[in-house]
Specification:
about 300 residues; 7 helices; alpha/beta; binds zinc ion
């Protein structure tokens, strides 16, 4: 009787321990901030990192807008946090500046132009590229990492899954393979590379959080920024390209996973609700044109 009881107690204890372990394992992956306790970053600047003309909008909105041309914005963001400067994406390569032929990641689909270099925009607020301590990239498409070479001493923050993907063998889609090859070239071999897995609190105080939003590419991420007056802002990366895609769950044909893309859009919706956050969509030119531009900033 005593032996049976002790076996039963052991079993209950074992189940309990497994449950506790399961819970901590489930929480370990999420570093999302507490909406009330999160600290704030001081300033958020928008930089104009190029604009592009695509000849067939339906690549980004399958089933709709076939053969219609569309203009996209390319946006970089700069965050001041104490003595740290974090740049979010590096945009279209500076060599594109004032080149009437433009530059392209996929020449048959899209051409990018640049009106002002990243270096000149940083100079407008008395910064040099060497002052940027961290560069976080949403993903490795060329229009988001065109100027990595300007920041050889910065810590580069990207998802492990993204790094693994661009160094993996080619797949069936030639456009995607072409984007991966360009990504390897533009990323190079950063001296200070910090590969992360999942949601990550950059400064350890809840002010700036990398949010894993795969689907557009396997290691795509967005950025959740907390500011004193503006509250929480989500920088989309390419989790969606247009407000309409966000509203209707429309997934571009170049995305590496449709299911992951839709799950990531849903994750962003939940973040907006939880943090009462504003979503700034990188390539949505209509929205971007309404936002503050450096030297103005959000705080
Ligand atoms: Zn992209």
């Amino acid at each position: 009787m005593l032996r049976q009881t002790s076996i039963a107690v052991s079993c209950v204890l074992l189940v309990f321990l497994l449950m506790v372990k399961g819970t901590s394992a489930a929480n370990a992956g999420s570093k999302l901030p507490d909406p009330i306790m999160a600290e704030v970053a001081e300033k958020l600047f928008r930089l104009d990192c190029g604009h592009s003309l695509a000849n067939d909008e339906s690549v980004w909105t399958p089933g709709e807008n076939v053969g219609r041309s569309i203009e996209f914005s390319s946006t970089c963001w700069l965050i001041k946090h104490g003595s740290d400067w974090l740049l979010w994406d590096t945009g279209v390569p500076e060599a594109t500046l004032n080149d009437p032929r433009g530059w392209s990641t996929l020449p048959k689909l899209i051409v990018y132009h640049l009106d002002k270099s990243l270096t000149d925009q940083l100079a407008d607020i008395r910064l040099k590229p060497g002052d940027i301590t961290r560069v976080a990239i949403s993903h490795t498409h060329g229009d988001h990492i065109g100027n990595m070479a300007l920041f050889p001493t910065a810590t580069i923050l990207m998802q492990h899954a993204e790094y693994r993907w661009i160094h993996s063998p080619n797949g069936p889609n030639d456009n995607v393979n072409q984007l991966m090859a360009l990504a390897r070239k533009l990323l190079g071999t950063p001296k200070n590379l910090q590969l992360i897995d999942g949601d990550t609190d950059v400064f350890g105080d809840g002010s700036v959080t990398l949010v894993s939003t795969p689907g557009h590419t396997p290691g795509h991420q967005s950025l959740l920024v907390h500011l004193k007056h503006s509250g929480f802002i989500i920088l989309s990366g390419d989790v969606v390209h247009l407000e309409e895609n966000f509203e209707k769950n429309i997934v571009p044909s170049l995305n590496t996973s449709k299911a992951d893309s839709i799950a990531s859009i849903e994750k962003v919706r939940q973040l907006i609700a939880r943090y009462k956050a504003t979503l700034f969509i990188n390539h949505d030119k209509k929205q971007t044109d309404t936002l503050k531009l450096l030297p103005e900033f959000y705080d």
